[in-house]
Amino acid sequence: MFDPTQLAALSAILRNGSFERAARLLGLTQSAVSQRIRLLEEQVGTPLIIRSQPCRATEAGARVFRHAEELRLLEQELRTDLGIGREPGALASGTTGADARAWPAVRIAVNADSLATWFLPALAAGEFLFDLVVDDQDHSADWLKRGEVRAAISSASRPVQGCDCLPLGALRYLATASPDFCRRWFGEEGVTPAGLQRAPMLTFNAKDRLQSRWAEQAFGTSLAGPSHWLPSSQAFVDAAAAGLGWGMNPEALAAPALAERRLRVLKADCPLDVPLYWHVSRSVLRLMQPVTQAVVEAARRALRPIP
Amino acid sequence: MFDPTQLAALSAILRNGSFERAARLLGLTQSAVSQRIRLLEEQVGTPLIIRSQPCRATEAGARVFRHAEELRLLEQELRTDLGIGREPGALASGTTGADARAWPAVRIAVNADSLATWFLPALAAGEFLFDLVVDDQDHSADWLKRGEVRAAISSASRPVQGCDCLPLGALRYLATASPDFCRRWFGEEGVTPAGLQRAPMLTFNAKDRLQSRWAEQAFGTSLAGPSHWLPSSQAFVDAAAAGLGWGMNPEALAAPALAERRLRVLKADCPLDVPLYWHVSRSVLRLMQPVTQAVVEAARRALRPIP
For a disulfide at A245, which of A49, A202, B101, B136, Cβ 3.0-4.6 Å? Predict the structure, then answer.
């Protein structure tokens, strides 16, 4: 068995980016933290931490970090089952009342547009510390497959091995641009495939296929237009409203700008509905039950039925 | 000299994530694109692209990609100086009127909170395709040092070699939480150092030092509280309003929730002002002049004087 205090030191460094902050967090001297990491690295036989600013995990370090998180969750699940309550946090002895340092930490992969629209309030449902990883809905389930998160919101409807999968609903996207942009690039005739090849579009990152999927659905043509690259959901709406480009924005996020006529829908009869699913590891199914329930309920209120 | 058509194929693949989409973008067959990459890789003597989904650059590939972008910008700067206008885009011959495919692409590193508040409308100033990289304000200048971007918004006031540096103003942050959160975690006595050690806070990522800096400024104590991890500016505000944790939010972003009393300022006399600077590479100084001017003006309207 690895020494839990060494594992805790590793987690604290990787979460907080430095030996110094980890030491403060754990109430230890910095040399005590260094010593724990040295012993852990000797036992594993390879460096676990890249001493950069901030500190990062080596490949082996990332694997050991996952193991440390896993142990903590498993113990929490055991305590829940036995009804013996939460373990006091490392520094919690002597304090009275609530202390979030004893809460279990759960890592979840979520797509940026869910995070920007409906997802967050659901997390207020339980006493957890959430560590959110943001990735494209077509790739978020990969984090679960690699064992790097405990739950994910993904467009994949097929359950990942060892996980349950619940349908959440469809997030509706509208192709939007500013009225000035439409006049400049599409003119009287409105949006055409030729216009789309010349007009600047917005792309979230290299994983973002939404603009192309919409063009295929709306016009049956593939899209090869020039693009801005903009990895932020809110900035996507702002950039469309500022006339930088056209892009696929979640209906809810675009609604205020649409109401104020700072944005216009490019083809009103042609929204793009992206189905979303909640994947959750069976190893934390009971522990996460209140979160799962809150996520499903929030999704039911905010999303459309899956086509 | 490297073959410009081979460099264009590399850029198109890395920007769009696949050989197939690059081929469509360039109006070529996929095998023609593969052939260009093969020849380029033979010339360099090492693989340039990792054939994953999406395709990513090897270390050498990233270097050649930067070179390709640099060439394009240099030529654009030359054309501006000679007054001979823009090069037509690869597919633009035969089309009439505006075509954004001929616009130069400029990569800029920007901190998430500037992107979420005041930065974007400034980009509507010129005919560029922007490729935004988001990083912490304490680290965004590193992208410029590494030559991976042409401009950056950074908290660093010292010019990077080969770059100009203009002061923009200070982005004001407020320590905020929901009223329920304050009652639960801080109670009658209000925020205290002891309360901050027990209450869950919000942290953007391992580079985010704002919560700690505020606690040091407000109480003279270092912070080692439990934290949620949440890499999104808007989600930071939403999470605070949902009662998940307290965190440093930009004044402008928190304003609506503060006005609706969904958020409360933790210590009203203790904001945190973060000075920001615009760094721009001298190699594109003239070309970028309209953008620089728009950024400086937008900052003057949105930010506070640097203390």
Answer: A202
